[in-house]
Amino acid sequence: MSNNPQDWPEPIIRVQSVSESCVDGIPGRYIKPPSDRPSTGTGFTLGDDANIPIIDLGGTEHDPVARASKYREILQACTEWGFFQIVNHGVDPDLMDKARETWRQFFHLPMELKQQHANSPKTYEGYGSRLGIEKGAILDWSDYYFLHYLPLSLKDHNKWPAQPPSCREVFDEYGRELVKLCGRLMKILSLNLGLEEDLLQNAFGGEDIGTCLRVNFYPKCPRPELTLGLSSHSDPGGMTLLLPDDQVPGLQVRKCNNWITVKPATHAFIVNIGDQIQVLSNAIYKSVEHRVIVNSDKERVSLALFYNPKSNIPIEPMKELVTQERPALYPPMTFDEYRLYIRLKGPRGKSQVESLKSPR
């Protein structure tokens, strides 16, 4: 298999088109093996009210006691869950709604307009419907749009949709606000590791980081119990800020071998730790498997912003966190090398970061 595939192994079929043409069944290409199906009952064993922690970032500016308590909540979420929701995070709720609805409009444009942006495995940038390049693979029930935001050398407005007309400016502003919010969170994550606030960001490459956006579109599915919108995986990058569809739950997070369906709080972002921060923290912070289920009555749109280390610097456990009792668990590897593995193989649970562990 070449390391730089130019094209998809078979013709791409848009899931949105499949969804519009199937009434009571779905093509075999989307039917998951029984062990991977979102079978009834899975995920509710911890009680229907189970949810990832919700943390209110408001009101900590001038109150050190409140701030310390919030930081403790975030530390607990990063070590026990790998996921949390944040509210009062400083991003304008109107901008969040506008970003989601602008992209929803894109997915409802005529197919020939969207097809002008079709992507290839070479960069993934553009309008896509599959991740790995394995021929005959079982596919996920979703279409997506993938874009680079940073570094500026990769940002190319020509790859962004020209329709709807507001798309480019809305996403420019949205990207700017979220990069700022990620910077704030990185300081908290660094302090919570007992490090100076800039150390984690510096390990990412300082200002010189990567950010990209994946907009997910999950069409209605007549047999949601047989498929997944996105297969189980942990995020390969640094940290993810997800703007979920607050009307339609779909994200499931693995906790103690149960799948918990996240209930999105209004105007919250869902934050999760990616593999690169698990490596840098020497596995104090966990990147956790998650997946997406689909819905028979409603489509769903979500926006995932990935905040990643500079792609060509070796990422390894930070020296301040390596001791005799807790030696370095991972060898150095650049994010570029890491990402290529994922692109060739597609989502595969936690197998990638676990396979890297240094032999004891």
TrEMBL record:
Domain of life of the organism encoding this protein: Eukaryota
Protein name: Uncharacterized protein
Organism: Bauhinia variegata (Purple orchid tree)
